[in-house]
Every structure is written in structure tokens, then in C-alpha cells.
Amino acid sequence: MNREEYLEVYRHSLSHILAKAVIEIFGKDQVQYAIGPQISDGFYYDFTLPRTVRQEDFEMIENKMREILKRKEAWTRKEVSREEALKLFADQKFKTELIEDLPEDELITIYTTGDDFVDLCRGPHVDNSQELLGAAFKIKSVSGAYWRGDENRDSLQRIYVYAFPDKAQLKAHLDLIREAMERDHKKLGPQLDLFMFDPTAPGMPYWLPRGWKLFNALLSYWRDVHELHGYQEISAPVINNKSLWETSGHWGHYKENMFLIPGTAEDESDYYAAKPMNCPNAIMVYKRQMRSYKDLPLRFSETDVIHRKEKSGELNGLFRVQMFRQDDDHTLLMHSQIRDEINDIMDIAEELYGTFGLDYMAELSTRPDDYMGDIELWNQAEASLKEILDAKYGEGNYEINEGDGAFYGPKIDLKMRDALGREWQMGTIQLDFQLPLNFDLKYTAADGTMKQPVMIHRALFGSFERFIGILIENFKGAFPFWMSPYQVGVVPIRPEHNEYAAKVVEALRKSRIRAEVDYEDENMKVKIKKYKTYKDPYIVVVGDKEAQENSVSVNIRGMNKTVQGVPLDTFLAVCRRLNEEHTLELADSFEA
RNA sequence: GCUGCUGUGGCUCAGUCGGUAGAGCGUCACAUUGGUAAUGUGGAGGUCACGAGUUCGAUUCUCGUCAGCAGCUCCA
Questions:
Q1: ipTM of this complex
Q2: What is the distance in angstroms measured between the alpha-carbon CA of A583 and the sugar C1' of B17?
Q3: What is the 3-state secondary structure (H, E, C) of A294-336?
Q4: What is the reported pTM?
Q5: Looking at domain A481-581, which of 3.40.50.800, 3.20.20.70, 3.30.70.660, 3.30.930.10 is its CATH number?
Q6: CA of residue A421 to C1' of nucleotide B76, angstroms
């Protein structure tokens, strides 16, 4: 048995122990038990119980589980007929439903643990509870869930449990969770004065001065890269009359997610809606004039604010917001250009992600059952996408989600893995055969006939907001030099050094280095601490010595190391280089 | 939206078994003239999220609203 199978078997087995414990605590006639699958860090089990399980109950339940394990009960497997199974679980409505839903010819197996607990299960399990004695587990949380994920059906209590083969692995996992919590951008962001929220605008971040500096550093890097790849940035209205959204189909399919703004009429006839996507306006720009095949591909990138109304419980810091800016683009092109264009987009993605040292994986989603458009076109497009992915990552080195594409075209999703090994859905590259049709887009082909272009929607960071949220957690707030809100904090030792400090700050700013300085008549240690808390990459201290020799004393972030007597010009040159090269690591030596 | 939890000065949190609140940090003032992560003293700062109910009296109890957090995808 390999490690994964082993995990599966005993997590699964432990979930039965949990169910048994819960039943013994609350009484068999008080508990309806549903399902108890394993998940990535343990397992859960769903129940209906006579009362809500609280945090105070966790220890009691854990103890009951241990007590059951110590009984070293045997597990016996038995094959039963459908009738026997139904009879056995007559008073368990969820189990009954599960049995009734099993295919006619399915073999039904039940497992008995000890002499009183029986559960419907396909197994496999351990043979005796004894085998689980060494396992380490801990109840993680209790939350609500619905029977079969359907909010119209029974509301269940789901008990989550962490489970690992031994204490060391459980501890390692709990440490990882703690580390992730320390990195939580919802905590770090406000702490570093990057962004805030206000109840009058739920899910709509306010970017504070420091955060906006970071945002703009990221944006300007993104612009530079796209400029080199032939993109043209546009900006368009944030609200449009509903007639636009009717044409695009959003009014019909996406209205619940749009913030609506009444016009002057009494009814909805002249409503406006804040844009939830940029595509229709990019199309307006395309339609402004006749387009020739020679113009294509036309790449209209856009970072305007967009709004999407979310259900109240779904907001989550910068990860799920109601107002954000995508690093968006809509490219109009001929069918024959799809492959080259997607290839170029993948190159940009690689370059962008590489700058942050983030690994990424690609996933292809193909034609769904309810697809629209010409099946030939779909086949060609999917073939092109596969070809590109095969060439780039090798056949089989990317995931294919059959039937998971949008109805208007296939797509490639890009997921990345952060410093803690967590996965994030980031970029998305979607082909769209539908909108060009809805808006009746045309170009004049070489033979003088009118043809319809294809549209590509793509965002590589996903949204600036979410991407920054991920970066905050990935770097734990200690950003690479080029994107740090302030790159250098200047600390004059005494007020008499303020004059030289001002000279240093001016020189830094003239070199386009973001520098902050504290002229207060305050102990220098206090100032150093302030900039350390802000995680400024470099803190430079200036006193008599530095003023005299036109140098700075550099404190390097994360290195507990100070380099004294660095000539100011040398320091400036190093900073400029880090900015230009978008270097991930800080320089720790300052040679001329 | 649903389930559960939470909401006390800018921040982190204590407290009130119902009699309108306290600490540390931060901030401000004054003193301190400092060499790489917290100098000292003093002051200001709170309608205890909002609304209603119960009560002689509510920050505390009840209900509602708003916002936040965790989960609601892992299929016996």
C-alpha cells in the first residue's frame, strides 16, 4: 500500500470512528448520519444532530474517538442485498436514499465496527481499530453543509477532522496552517497600510497610499511587458446603458451580478449597469471603424474598475471582491491567427509569473454539451490549444477538463502554486465565438469579402486585487524591491542630520526610487523599527560619518546585516538596477 | 443566500452575574541628542457596530439589521 492509499484507508476508517463516537454521545435515535469522505488534510462527516456542536465539544468527541479505538474492535465486511440494506438502515434517511440511488447491479457492502455500529461503505478499511491507534487526528471545525450540496434540502452539521499517520505529520500540517494564518493578507494588508475596507462598500477595497504605490508598480511593469507585445491599452465607461448589456447577453444571463443604476425614467427602460466585464466596451472600440485583415490581431487591453455583485457570504478579503481591476485584454483576430496569438499570450504569462518566482500549471477546458457555434471551429480551436500546450509542457503535463469550457468557446486556465504549496486559480485565456456574432463584428478579408473575427478574452494576473492578495501571502509582505511600496526608508540619527537625509532622499527620488524619511526628533531605533515593521527592503541610516563622506549605512531586510559606508552613488546604482531588472532577491553587497 | 461564530478607543485585547468602561501599543505635548527592532513623563481619545424590545436602568438579556470570519467543491 503506498502512502496515498494508506492515507485514504485510514482517514476513511477514522471517519467511521467519528460517526460512531457522535452516535454514542448523542444517542443512536438522535443522529442521522450522511456521508464521511476523506479530504486533502483529513476527512469530514455530515450529521443531523439534536443540537449544535460547539468548539467546547471537540475535546469530548476526540476523547470518545480515542476511547473507541482503544476497544480494539474488529471491522467486518459483509455483502448484503438491497432489501437487507434498506431494512438495516430503515431509520437512517440519508443512507436509505443512498441505497435507493445505487445502480441495480451495484454490490452493496456494509461494515460493522464492534457490535453496535454499522455503516454503508464500499471500503476498504482497516481490519481492526487497533491499526488506527498510532494515527494523529484533531477536530478542525464544524460548519453547515447541505445534503448533497443542495440548499433546498436538509441542513447538516459537517465535522471536519485533520488526520495524519502520526503526530509529527499532524504537527507539520498544523504548523503550515499557522504559517498560512500569519501570512493572511486580510491581516497583513491593513497592518502594512496597503488597503482597507469600509462597511459602506463591502468587498470594495480602498487602496491606501502605500498599497497604491505597490499597485502602480505592478501595473506599470505589466504595461511595459504588454507594450512590447503589441498591446494597445484603452479605457472605457464604467457604467453603460442596459441596451449594451442586452446585446452582449449580460442582461439576460448576468443581471443578478450587476450593480444597477436607475436613469430618469420611472421604470427599468433606461437603467444603466456598472460593467462586470470589459468585453462589450472593447467591442465598441473595435466597431468604431472598418477593420481590415491587415489590422488583425487587434489587442485592446484594459484595467478599468469593474463591479460584480456577490452573495454576501462569498466575499473574502482581496480574493473575492465586488470591485476590482482585471489585467484584461480583448483581442480580435482571424481563425488562422489563434495558435500564434495563444502562444504569445503563454509567453507573456511565463514572463510575468517568472518574475515572482511562482510555478504555474495549465488546464484546458473543452467543449461543453450546451456549446454554441460551429462545431468545426470548436474542433480546430481545441486542436490548436492542445498543440500549443503539448509543445510547451509536453503531452500529458497539463490537465484537461472535458466539457468544462464556456458555452462560447474553449479556455486555458493557469493556476499557480505559492511559497506554501497552495494552489490559486489565476490567469484565464478564453476563446469566444459568440460575442463577435452578437455584436455583428466584421473585417474585410484579402478577397474583399466580410468575415467575422474571433475574440480572445485573457487576464493573466486574474485581477490586480486578487493577485496582490496572493503576493502578500506569498512574500509575507516582504515584496521584491521593485514593487515594495517604499523601497528605502531613510533614518537621520539626529535632527542635525536632516539636511543630509533630505539630500539622500532627493537623490533617491530623482533615480525613481520610492523613499520615505522620518525627520522627527525621535530616537533612531524607533525610526528603524517603524520601517522594519513596514518591511522596507533597505533602511539607510545617516549621521556625521555618512554626511561627511557622502555615503549611507544600509540595513538589509531579512538579513540582520548592516553595510556601512556605501557611497551614495553606488547605492543609487544598485537600486536602479533592482528596479530595472525586477529582481526577486535584494542585493546584499554594494560594490562600485 | 444558508449554517455556525464574532463586532468594546486608530490597533491588539480585558471587563461589566444589568448600575453608561480599562490596559498595552499607536497618537499628541514636553523633556531626552541618540550609531542599527521599542528613552522618559504627562495629556487627549469610546453613544461598548446599528435599530427595536424587556427593565427603574441595557455596552451586558432578547429580537432584527449591517459588517467580518470559517464553511457550504472533495460523494457510501
A1: 0.90
A2: 60
A3: HHCCEEEEECCEEECCCCHHHCECCCECCEEEEEEEEEEECHH
A4: 0.89
A5: 3.40.50.800
A6: 31
